[in-house]
Amino acid sequence: MRIDVVTIFPEYLEPLNVSLVGKARARGLLDVRLHDLREWTHDKHNTVDDTPYGGGPGMVMKPDPWGEALDAVIGSGVQGEEPPVLVVPTPSGRPFTQELAVELSEKPWLVFTPARYEGIDRRVIEEYGDRLDVREVSIGDYVLAGGEAPVLVMVEAVARLLPGVLGNAESHRDDSFAPGAMADLLEGPVYTKPPEWRGRGIPDVLLSGHHGKIARWRRDEAFRRTVRNRPDLIERADPAAFDKKDREI
Ligand code: SAM
Predict the structure, then answer these.
(1) In this protein, which residues make up the domain named tRNA methyltransferase TRMD/TRM10-type (predicted)?
(2) 84 CB less than 6 Å from ligand 1?
(3) Catalytic residue list contains 91
(4) Do 141 and 215 sit in the same domain of this protein?
């Protein structure tokens, strides 16, 4: 997969050299290219923002540098190959979910446009929306100072789903929100050695070696945790899918 990020703070994306994403890059599974938006400015102050039409506080990112930058990045693709999905981080976007991470992980190319100030002039989103798949995405109901942290969040969520990135391909199957074993539930508690720590043991069933009972226990714990922490997930789940999953265990 190829990922391009256009930003005024490329150094903010340094963590993409570390850990899972860094290793995926080093192994050639992920091609990440960072671009400084200011390279597409033409004045001596490298201006990327201006006052908002209609007045009000804050500044808005100008369309000109974004247009030039995106034309250059998108134009660098191989002729005839699938164009990128443009991912626009914004608190006013659709929520970023595991489902969307899975969908994006199946695309060959993503371009991220993390903004600063009050965001990007709307015409940029409209312009590229006419020719590309554009997703305006929010990572949560709060406002950050810029879109770089959301890009780190989204790239990590997507990268760990790419074939070959996780050591054990099965390991995201049981994650919270995964469509597989957990069927929209949160993952329950996990334990490792030693079997006793500060007087606290682990549930006997985990030592039983009985796969069926362990799966049943995990499912019950996942359900309990979801009821406690995210009752909204239970409310919107399909009861038929729940029953089917429970019969399988
Ligand atoms: N005035 C905007 C609003 O209220 O929707 C907030 C702009 S915010 C200060 C600047 C930039 O940070 C946004 O354009 C976006 O790129 C990024 N950002 C902030 N919070 C975000 C969130 N929850 N999800 C995704 N991106 C976010």
Answers:
(1) 1-235
(2) no
(3) yes
(4) no
Amino acid at site 4: D
**What band does 84 get if pLDDT is binned at 50, 70 and 90?**
very high
**Is the distance from CB of 179 to CB of 173 less than 8 angstroms?**
no
Q: Is residue 167 one of the residues assigned to a domain? A: no
Which of 159, 186, 216 is the last residue before a domain boundary? 159
CA distance 135 to 165: 24
The response to whether 32 counts as a known ligand-binding position is no
> What separation in Å is there between the alpha carbon of 152 and the centre of ligand 1?
14
Rounded to two decimals, what is the model's pTM? 0.94
Q: Per residue in 92-144, pLDDT tens?
A: 999 999 999 999 999 999 999 999 999 999 999 999 999 999 999 999 999 99
Residue 103: the pLDDT is: 97
Give 51 Cα–ligand 1 centroid separation in angstroms. Answer: 17
117 appears as a binding residue in the annotation: no
The β-bridge relationship of strands 60-61 and 49-50 is antiparallel
Amino acid at 44: K
pLDDT reading at 207 higher than 90: yes
Is the ipTM here above 0.95? yes
What are the Cα distances from residue 53, in Å, to 50, 121, 122, 143, 158?
Answer: 9, 10, 11, 22, 36
Cβ 48 vs Cβ 8: under 8 Å: yes
220 is in an annotated binding site: no
Residue of 25, 160, 224, 230 with catalytic role: 160
Asked whether the predicted pLDDT for residue 181 surpasses 60, the reply is: no
Catalytic entry in 64, 91, 187, 224: 91
**Closest-lying ligand 1 atom to the alpha carbon of residue 146:** 12
